[in-house]
From TrEMBL:
Keywords: ATP-binding, Glycoprotein, Kinase, Leucine-rich repeat, Membrane, Nucleotide-binding, Receptor, Repeat, Serine/threonine-protein kinase, Signal, Transferase, Transmembrane, Transmembrane helix
Binding sites annotated in the UniProt record for ATP: 677
PROSITE patterns in alphabetical order: LRR, PROTEIN_KINASE_ATP, PROTEIN_KINASE_DOM, PROTEIN_KINASE_ST
Protein name in the entry: non-specific serine/threonine protein kinase
Lineage: Eukaryota, Viridiplantae, Streptophyta, Embryophyta, Tracheophyta
């Protein structure tokens, strides 16, 4: 359809009209290379300026001579266009002062988290109601005071509202009921007063009962009064946690309590509730934790025999009718904590309660009227604490030494004080103490579980308040359980692809409801990367993780902040927690990665630093800017993690082997399948080179390039983690091993998509990249049989216009695809890739390997055409597997391939021209505008062309959105 000769043909024939045919194309290319002009809008910049001023100059790294969205400021996340601030995450940043009204100017904010800034005070400004797009608002562990403004009801996009641990006062506004998308409501541990808002009585006709999408009501530790609104026990509610403890609530527990069929944790304790316990609790199948203690509940002890999932049950300190220990207790096989102090119990203690068929660990029946003899001889091995103090027990037999038994205040001890003392003294240790001596730098600790190495490393440390456990004593068993749960909970977090091993989690506890949790970095690693530290904090703090045994908690992080920039990006799909609880929680953006501030200026690496380029990065940023890998979207994996996901590099996980080393498949903790390239000992690069490589790779994102997910650099290992490509290589398909039908259309489409990938590297990557090893085994097929170019392991940064040409010291590439000009002159340009791609095209058409039976496909094709003429020559060379093809198109493709393998690089087309030609060969292209001559095309046509052929310059893909747009203008 192209009537004139292609440009390379003209140039080859000495016509001095080079590229004239592609004038428009050239114009478009320059358009593509135009500077990214998007800048954060002034309104947002001004708002950030006002915030910094109000926060005592913090964050001090915000530099108003740069652009917040373009230079990725600390804690600032932006939208795709890089003009609006959408996320502001400044957790534990030592912010002071107040939240100024200008926060309301950041009208595109979706996620605001200022938690753990203990000096951030003042009240919530009413202007916060301007943030109509806000989906997550977390200001926890700060010093906010005053009322929650009624205009909070305007934030109708809100799904998370977390204001725990401030000094907020006044009532909870009834307008809260307008937040129909609210999933998480936490205003606990404030000084809120008044009645819980109820639509049936409130002026606005809305209340908590309207929050039918909410799963969490955390209202505890306030001074709420009045009765519990019956309206919230309507069948529309989805609640799983209802935490009302430590308030001043009165009246009955509504009989409709059984309507909340999804309930898992209910706290009614420490209020002034009265009346009898409704039978509804017993029908809530998923109820694991029930606290009714410390009220004035009366009548019969409730029959909970059908609540068979109960793990923790607290019934003590009420006014229940005097009764024996209920027999149904031994039916609750999952129960591990039973607390019935001051519950008016009398009679014997059945040994069944402690039997080996039960799971019980902690039992407390203190201050009752129990009598007879306690027999623990058949106690289950998990039993740790039995508190029977202040009863009428006269006898005691046989207890395992692992159990602490408190018998004080019983007649038995009158005669056996010595034994009672020793039984009580069997207190297990509560502290994970290190056997190592010596001290560590600030924030660094010796992991007590690694006392063989005695190395200091920096854990993420949090102070935890447990909401659903109120263990009378936390001892060994519970610590281990908790540590295991933290490790597995964090490993399953949707935010991170990190596997946490049990030894990395150390819990120490001082009272029944508080503990410190230290999450140590993997073995042999001194500290978490700031990004991982931020993610760990975020995951624990915001309860993205559920812990079946230890229940929900609030966590305040302590220690000097990790000096991290948190960069924010798009939606994480498959957010596991959300799915597990059956509601799509992560409607919007979540924190994906925290990265270092990316500086543009580079410094010459000092030789010394070059040996340990990761040190500065793994450490907390003191090492200077030059050594900080400029990663965009790729993350660090620990060796441990890689081992786990490849079955310790088992043979069954091997999927290939190349010059670089072996390739393994593996599944990340998230379930995502990946391909892991592990450098063989011969391929190991210097650390500085490896760093350069991952920086380069992580910057490149295009739908026709295999995406880098991350890397591992530990214990002398160098590994790259890529997205998994299920349909193998182009080479495999051509040799028939994949069973993929390689008809004409498929071959053309694979040629097209791989050409686009390469063209992207040449013209849109910044800096432009020369692949240097284009070959059919580096072109992979995804699940939709779209070709993606892989393996930039040998890539080089292309020479730039301002003449900074990289001098390659050593010719690299694969024999058969290698550009002879590059081989001879050592001069590397994009045209070397064009050459290799020409060989791939010939391969696609002939099915032959470039060098097969001692014959070079390029030469064979040229000879065939010279001897037999175009049509015959092509027919004699064509892949016998290619049964049907349009001869004319095939001829054109051969011409194109031969143009690509011209001896002189200048005579070869550019990849953009290659794309254009392939495009013209596929039938569908006839309808598209042709860019010929000097015709003027509309901007729309050009954009359409760009999108179809080159990928839009703003071709954001998935979660890389935020990083992608950071391509810097030249
Ligand atoms: C809240 O729920 C009540 C009862 O279903 C209803 O009458 C009222 O209109 C709702 N209010 C809002 C704001 O949705
Ligand atoms: C009970 O929990 C299970 C497991 O989490 C869940 O699949 C089920 O939907 C829950 N039942 C109700 C009624 O919420
Ligand atoms: C427990 O469930 C059984 C079977 O559904 C029922 O007959 C019984 O009344 C229930 N017991 C209580 C106390 O709810």
């Amino acid at each position: 359809m192209i009537s004139t000769l292609p440009a390379w043909e003209q140039s080859r024939r000495g016509l001095h009209v080079r590229f004239s045919l592609f004038a428009s194309l050239v114009a478009i290319s320059s358009l593509l290379n135009a500077p990214v002009t998007s800048l954060t809008i002034q309104q947002d910049v001004n708002a950030l300026r006002a915030l910094q001023a109000a926060w005592g100059g913090k964050p001090s790294t915000w530099d108003f001579s740069t652009d917040p969205c373009d230079t990725l400021w600390l804690g600032v996340g932006c939208d795709d266009t890089h003009t609006r601030v959408t996320q502001l995450l400044l957790i534990n940043q030592d912010l002071t002062g107040t939240l100024p009204s200008s926060i309301g100017d950041l009208t595109n904010l979706t996620n605001l988290d200022l938690s753990s800034n203990a000096k951030l005070g003042g009240s919530l400004p009413t202007e916060i109601s301007n943030l109509k797009n806000l989906q997550r608002l977390f200001i926890q562990f700060c010093n906010l005071s005053g009322q929650i403004p009624t205009v909070i009801g305007n934030l109708t996009s809100l799904s998370y509202l977390g204001l725990t641990q401030n000094s907020l006062s006044g009532t909870l506004p009834d307008t809260i009921g307008f937040l129909s998308n609210l999933f998480w409501l936490d205003v606990s541990s404030n000084q809120l007063t008044g009645a819980l808002p109820d639509s049936t009585t409130s002026p606005s006709g809305s209340g908590l009962d309207n929050l039918t999408n909410a799963r969490h009501f955390h209202l505890e530790n306030n001074s709420f009064s009045g009765t519990i609104p019956t309206s919230i026990f309507n069948t529309q509610m989805q609640l799983i946690h209802l935490l009302l403890h430590n308030n001043m609530l009165t009246g009955n527990i509504p009989t409709a309590v059984g309507n909340l069929i999804h309930m898992e944790i209910m706290h009614f304790d420490s209020n002034a509730l009265n009346g009898s316990v409704p039978s509804g609790f017993s029908s809530i199948q998923n109820l694991t934790t029930l606290h009714l203690d410390n009220n004035q509940l009366g009548g019969q002890l409730p029959d909970l025999s059908n609540a068979t999932n109960l793990q923790m049950l607290y019934l003590g300190s009420n006014n229940f009718t005097s009764a024996p220990i209920p027999s149904w207790i031994s039916n609750l096989k999952k129960l591990f904590l039973l607390s019935m102090d001051s519950a008016n119990l009398f009679g014997n203690i059945s040994a069944d309660i402690f039997s080996s068929s039960s799971n019980i660990s902690n039992v407390t029946f203190a201050s009752n009227s129990l009598n007879g003899t306690v027999d623990l001889s058949s106690a289950n091995s998990r039993l740790r604490l039995v508190n029977l103090s202040n009863n009428d027990l006269a006898g005691f037999v046989n207890s395992p030494t692992t159990v602490q038994i408190i018998l004080d205040g019983n007649p038995y001890c009158d005669n056996n004080q010595g034994q009672c003392d020793s039984l009580r003294a069997a207190t297990p240790t509560l502290i994970n103490a290190s056997a190592c001596s010596g001290s560590c730098a600030d924030n660094y600790l010796i992991n007590p579980k690694l006392s063989t190495t005695c190395q200091c490393s920096r854990p993420v440390v949090g102070n935890v308040d447990f909401l659903a456990t109120k263990l009378p004593i936390l001892e060994d068993y519970n610590l281990t359980l908790m540590e295991e749960e933290f490790a597995s909970g964090l490993s399953q977090s949707a935010f991170m692809n990190i596997t946490f091993l049990d030894f990395q989690v150390v819990v120490n506890t001082f009272t029944a409801t508080h503990a410190t949790v230290s999450i140590f970095p993997p073995n042999n690693t001194a500290t978490w990367s700031p990004s991982d530290a931020a993610l760990i904090s975020y995951a624990i703090k915001n309860q993205e993780i559920t812990y079946p045994g230890i229940g929900p908690m609030v966590c305040a992080f302590i220690g000097t902040p990790y000096d991290a920039v948190i960069i924010v990006s798009g939606l994480t799909t498959g957010a596991k927690v959300g799915i597990a609880i059956g509601v799509v929680v992560f409607v919007v953006a979540v924190v994906v990665l925290g990265l270092y501030a990316i500086r543009q200026r580079k410094r010459a690496d000092k030789a010394e630093e070059a040996n340990k380029p990761f040190a500065a990065w793994i450490a907390t940023g003191e090492g200077g800017d030059a050594n900080i890998p400029q990663l965009k979207g790729a993350r660090w994996f620990s060796l441990e993690e890689i081992r786990k996901c490849t079955n310790n590099f088992s043979q069954s996980n091997e999927i290939g082997e190349g010059g670089y080393g072996k390739v393994y498949k593996g599944y990340l903790a998230s379930g995502e399948k990946v391909a892991i390239k592990r450098a063989g000992t011969d391929s190991l690069q210097g650390a500085a080179e490896f760093k350069n490589e991952i920086e380069l790779l992580s910057r490149v994102h295009h739908r026709n390039l295999v995406g880098l997910i991350g890397f591992c650099f530990e214990e002398g290992e160098q590994m790259l983690v890529y997205e998994f490509m299920p349909n193998g290589t182009l080479r495999e398909s051509l040799s028939g091993t994949t069973g993929i039908q390689m008809n004409w259309e498929r071959r053309l489409s694979l040629a097209m998509s791989s050409a686009r990938g390469i063209a992207y590297l040449h013209t849109e990557a910044n800096p432009p990249i020369i692949h240097r090893d284009i070959k059919s085994s580096n072109i992979l097929l995804d699940d939709k049989l779209v070709a993606k170019v892989a393996d930039f392991g040998l890539s080089k940064v292309a020479p730039t216009d301002d003449g900074v040409a990289p001098l390659s010291t050593q010719v690299k590439g694969t024999l058969g695809y290698l550009d002879p000009d590059y081989f001879m002159t050592n001069r590397l340009t994009e045209k070397s890739d064009v050459y290799s791609f020409g060989v791939v095209l010939l391969e696609l058409m002939t099915g032959r390997l470039p060098i097969q039976g001692g014959k070079y496909v390029v030469r064979e094709m040229r000879v065939a055409l010279a001897q037999e003429g175009m049509a015959q020559g092509v027919k004699s060379m064509v892949d016998p597997e290619l049964k049907e093809y349009p001869l004319e198109a095939l001829e054109k493709l051969v011409e194109l391939a031969l143009a690509c393998v011209e001896d002189s690089p200048e005579s070869r087309p550019t990849m953009a021209e290659v794309i254009k030609e392939i495009e013209s060969l596929s039938e569908v292209t006839s309808a598209k505008p042709e860019f010929q001559g000097n015709n003027e095309y509309s901007q729309e046509d050009k954009l359409a062309y760009m999108q179809q052929n080159l990928g839009s310059p703003f071709d954001y893909s998935g979660s890389y959105t935020a990083f992608y747009g950071n391509v810097q203008p030249k």
